[in-house]
Fold this sequence. Notes:
61% of the residues lie in helices and 13% in strands. The chain is an alpha+beta fold.
Amino acid sequence: MVESDLIGGYAQALFAVARAEDLLGTVEDELYAFGKALEQSTPLRDSLTDAALPVENKKAVLHDLLGDRATPLTISLLGFVVDAGRSREIPKIVDELARMVSQERQHVLAEVRTAVDLNTKQRERLAQALSHATGRQVDVKIVVDPTVVGGVVARVGDEVFDGSIASRLEDAKQALGSV
Length: 179
């Protein structure tokens, strides 16, 4: 089986269970956040992918880490993926799940990197601005990334909207250098 088929199959399974439990939006958001945290945290990634650690220990890490931060369904679905020996693919699986959910809504997915989490009102304004800029309905997924320092960097498909402070400083530096 091709890796993309495997990832798509797991994403479809998670999608079906979350939809059947009427928790698709919540579970998708929680899984997406966890997938991005897993990408950014080497110790977490190592603890979930270490072949020497028993599966029960890996699932205990999930419970300890997520506890009250995620629904029991989200934790169970992650446990399912860990049981199957697919911890390494969690970020790709949840990316595909998010894409599937957006596609079902006839939206596109926007991954937005910020130094701090955004509140609901900020997320809504950002989604509106990105929808206006792209001409498509946008589902915003926030990734807290301290390297952004300030502002936001949004990726919608192949388009990147860089409103970060680092980008603005670089633009100013180049403008000053050309004077």
